[in-house]
């Protein structure tokens, strides 16, 4: 079974600086997808960015980018120019390797709390 | 645009009481639907998913059940709640796309006393 590991303690970053949130995963499959979600204090999960295992380039989405190192099985999220509204929990997730269709089950890590200081 | 609703937003129930949480999706047809539970300070655990009306797959054996009576309606139920059922319940949907990402509802916070 696949596994997502997020072991960083609560992270702090100064407003306008960049921060990296770590995610490592374990899978024996060659085809998989990795996601990052943001969960503010309201509780809703917000999709941020996606990286496919066969994507040759690191995914980027506005201020979010993914540092994907396939050989090391890591998919770290980089947030540039942090804003106060970035304070939230961040979850890394992996799509079940056996799911190639839309009915894809996700396995989530335990999350990382990010606090942005003014 | 698509929206997903969950209700109630919060719920406090005694042990042994029944449960019914509802999730509805607007603006899309034949979505895949998911129920997750999040324990305090933890990640999400998939409970059930559905690819169509009346089609339910269970991921974790427990005293919860799910039903999909309509295309865009997903219901999570229990006949008798346990203390361990407390948590934050999130409903999600997706359809086929480049990423197949899931979109989440606002969640229901359940406290079993």
Explained architecture:
The complex is a heterodimer of chains A (118) and B (113). With 118 residues, chain A is mainly β. Helix content of chain A is 0%, strand content 49%. In chain A, the strands form three sheets. In chain A, strands 2, 5, 6, 10, 11 and 12 form a six-stranded mixed beta sheet that branches. Chain A has a four-stranded antiparallel beta sheet with strand order 3-9-8-7, with no helix packed on it. In chain A, β5 and β6 form a beta hairpin. Chain A is globular, with a radius of gyration of 14 Å. The mean pLDDT of chain A is 91. The model of chain B has no long low-confidence stretch (mean pLDDT 92). In chain B, strands 2, 4, 5, 6, 9, 10 and 11 form a seven-stranded mixed beta sheet that branches. A four-stranded antiparallel beta sheet of chain B has the order 1-3-8-7, with no helix packed on it. In chain B, β7 (64-70) and β8 form a beta hairpin. Chain B has no helices and eleven strands. Chain B has 113 residues and is mostly beta strands. Helices cover 0% and strands 58% of the residues of chain B. Classes of the chains: A mainly beta (118), B mainly beta (113). Chain A binds chain B through residues 4, 33, 35, 37, 42-47, 50, 52, 91, 93, 95, 101-111, and chain B through 32, 34, 41-46, 49, 51, 59, 88, 90, 92, 94-97, 99-107, 109.
């Amino acid at each position: 079974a696949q596994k997502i590991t997020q072991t960083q303690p609560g992270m702090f970053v100064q407003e306008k600086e960049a921060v990296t949130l770590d995610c490592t995963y374990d899978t024996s499959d060659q085809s998989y997808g990795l996601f990052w979600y943001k969960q503010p204090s309201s509780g809703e999960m917000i999709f941020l960015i996606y990286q496919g295992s066969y994507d040759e380039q690191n995914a980027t989405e506005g201020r979010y980018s993914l540092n994907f190192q396939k050989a090391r099985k890591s998919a770290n999220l980089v947030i540039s120019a942090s804003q106060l509204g970035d304070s939230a929990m961040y979850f890394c997730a992996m799509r079940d390797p056996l799911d190639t269709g839309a009915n894809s089950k996700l396995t989530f890590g335990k999350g990382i709390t990010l606090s942005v200081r003014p | 645009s698509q929206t997903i609703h969950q209700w109630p937003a919060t719920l406090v129930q005694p042990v042994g009481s029944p449960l019914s949480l509802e999730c509805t999706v607007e603006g899309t047809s034949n979505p895949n639907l998911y129920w997750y539970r999040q324990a305090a300070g933890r990640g999400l655990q998939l409970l059930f998913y559905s690819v169509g009306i009346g089609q339910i797959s269970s991921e974790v054996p427990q005293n919860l059940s799910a039903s999909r009576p309509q295309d865009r309606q997903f219901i999570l139920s229990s006949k008798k709640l346990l203390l361990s059922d407390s948590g934050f319940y999130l409903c999600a949907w997706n359809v086929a796309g480049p990423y197949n990402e899931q979109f989440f509802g606002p969640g229901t916070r359940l406290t079993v006393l």
